[in-house]
Design goal:
six-stranded mixed beta sheet; alpha/beta
Length: 214
């Protein structure tokens, strides 16, 4: 996984400021998977703040070319990364497609929406990485459509070992604007959480599937 420390810290602070990331160790959230978590991330909120969405757009655009080279196409993962992915494609003056979780049941039965030619180099834009499973399903769909995946760029990752393993197995390089470690360091420094609460959220990250508040 690739990231820049200064960018990671600034992105984390912006996400905390607009409550795109919420930390609540004493009253944990329940994810769709059923996992209990002291953190919840909703990066869709970024789109409602022009200055912040432009910052994310520009950091993605700059780092995509730096880390992976200029692609032929930007692909957003539905639904969370469609908006940001489109902004990045517009900034880079590149075609844009997006990937559904599964193929449509009617019409052209598309999973990849937009014009994509076989052999084109594609960078996938994602909003959030947890285990990486749903993100890598999008990669599989693009590869099945003939795309050459140059890498993935995401706003935030929880940094789970299982995600690192999944991306390695799929042979996909991942760049993220920010990550869990930088978020926690900033959250303590800026008093979003106490040092005691920091201990709780760090324990969660070691075993998120079995953790529960005590």
């Amino acid at each position: 996984m690739i990231f820049n420390k200064d960018t990671a810290e600034k992105t984390a602070e912006l996400l905390l400021q607009i409550n795109a990331i919420k930390l609540n160790p004493g009253n944990p959230f329940t994810w769709a998977s059923g996992w209990k978590s002291p953190i919840y991330c909703d990066n869709r909120l970024i789109l409602s703040f022009p200055t912040i969405r432009n910052y994310v757009r520009d950091e993605f655009s700059k780092n995509i070319e730096k880390q992976f080279g200029r692609p032929d196409v930007i692909a957003g993962v539905a639904t969370g990364a469609i908006g940001i992915g489109m902004l990045v494609a517009e900034r880079l003056n590149l075609p844009f497609v997006y990937v559904r979780p599964e193929a449509k049941k009617h019409g052209r039965l598309n999973q990849v929406e937009g014009f994509l030619q076989k052999g084109q180099n594609v960078i996938v834009v994602e909003d959030l990485i947890s285990t990486g499973n749903s993100s890598l399903l999008a990669v599989e769909a693009l590869r099945a459509a003939g795309a050459n995946i140059k890498g993935m760029a995401a706003i935030f990752t929880y940094g789970f070992d299982v995600a690192d393993q999944n991306f390695k197995s799929a042979k996909v390089d991942l760049f993220t604007l920010s990550n869990y470690e930088n978020l926690l360091n900033l959250a303590v420094a800026k008093s979003y959480i106490s040092e005691k609460e920091e201990k709780t959220v760090r324990e969660w990250s070691l075993s998120p599937s079995t953790w529960d508040v005590v």
